[in-house]
Amino acid sequence: MTHENAHSAQNKQSPLVSGIAVDVLVCGGGMAGTMAAVAAARGGASVLLVERWGFLGGSATAGAVGQFVGWETAAGRQVIQGLAEEVVQRLERQGGSGGHTHFTMSTGHRMDQVSFDPERLKLVLDQMATEAGVRLLFHATLLDVARQGDAVSAVTVLTKAGPLEVRPRIAIDASGDLDLLARAGAGFLPLEADEAPQPATMMFRFGPIDFSRFEALTSAELQALCRQGVDSGALARAALHQSRVPGTDDGWFNISRVSLDATDPFALSAGEVEGRRQAFAAAGFLAARVPGCEGGRLVALAAQLGIRESRRVRGDVVLTADDLRGERRFPDAIAVGAYPMDIHPARGTGLHFETLGGDRSYEIPFRCLLPAGLGNVLVAGRGISASHGAHASTRVMPTTMAIGQAAGTAAALACAGNGGPRELDAALLRDRLRQDAAFLPD
Ligand SMILES: Cc1cc2nc3c(=O)[nH]c(=O)nc-3n(C[C@H](O)[C@H](O)[C@H](O)COP(=O)(O)OP(=O)(O)OC[C@H]3O[C@@H](n4cnc5c(N)ncnc54)[C@H](O)[C@@H]3O)c2cc1C
């Protein structure tokens, strides 16, 4: 082949464009999507995971949210295990986390926490996905969805080589914003009159910090500093909350706040600009005013604004705040959560934080993962069918990982049984999850 012929061959449409068929397509490789893909592949399904970034983790890596919280009841009983716990153990073995710890919040709540290095997490998730046999397609964005009746028959993604049509038996929307479901025409839950989506945050890494002095600040001193920061316009949130990067003197700070509709592309773009502005303003305040931070500077920004809340699907069941408060049991429970309802208000600098208290926990039914009116689609992650209040608890990463494991396990079982997710025997799904070390009470 001459040089010119080779060149024109490269310009022809890639063979990718002819499309591929898979058992399970996972759209979005955040913590929920990655766990869903791993569970489905370990369950014997052929799995394609489509992710717009060049790495897995979503908010945990691209958003640089450097801590998993919400493993335990307030009394200290661990209710999230399974694949999520495997992630922690792998991180620990590779020096990417010190494992489970606790700290006391200004509200008095004893928070459980696993701090981790987002860069090491990328590697751990690569390893889990590739070892399980998940086929990864990075730098690929959802483009279109075709339906036949109540089934998603094809999903087109835009890749470096052009559009690729994927024909899945089951699709799992783990894109956080539920882009696949939006294009499939699914219904979403509205906000009540007194509700607004939780604001986004641009995480930033700051250091070095003299942690012996920073952590010695009393609650009163911290509150006075936060007040100064808010009054001077340097802080959008009355907090100096950070998670230390294991093995370093740096922390990832979670102290900016941008209210937006993350599904509006122009609002999202303006939000990235505003997030960076706020991050630099807050870093300047840290260096100028906060004991222990005098020698530090902003070392890195997250690759993207962290989105707390956008679309929530209308599923066969809607989990509510009262279900959490009342510890409601469900026969098709696939995960247990215990994290407080943690609402960052769209306006204002404070936090609404409602703990379940004591040894209380709640259950998440499988029906919250089933979009009403769609037969071969599951939701994993922060977009499950939950009210604004319930979502404020289910959105944390240990819970989204447990939901992801359940979605992937269900998809593999459905493929093996030739039925749809809605026809699955909940008892079979629960047994399989328990066999795979997920925590589910009898
Ligand atoms: C600032 C902030 C602080 C938080 N603090 C904590 C905390 O301390 N501890 C904790 O446990 N939780 C925390 N949370 C909550 C938690 O991080 C998220 O709710 C959780 O990570 C959501 O996981 P997910 O997998 O559902 O979605 P995401 O992490 O949003 O993942 C979605 C994935 O889909 C990809 N994607 C999206 N659209 C497309 C598309 N169209 N095509 C292809 N790919 C797509 C994205 O790139 C991403 O990888 C915080 C959240 C934020 C934003």
UniProtKB/TrEMBL annotation:
In which domain of life is the source organism classified? Answer: Bacteria
**Keywords, alphabetical:** 4Fe-4S, Iron, Iron-sulfur, Metal-binding, Oxidoreductase
Q: Which Gene3D superfamilies does the record cross-reference, listed alphabetically? A: FAD/NAD(P)-binding domain
- Give TM segment ranges: none
Which Pfam families is this protein grouped with? FAD_oxidored
Keyword Transit peptide among UniProt keywords: no
* Name by which UniProt lists this protein: FAD-dependent oxidoreductase
Protein source organism: Roseomonas haemaphysalidis
* Upper taxonomic lineage: Bacteria, Pseudomonadati, Pseudomonadota, Alphaproteobacteria, Acetobacterales
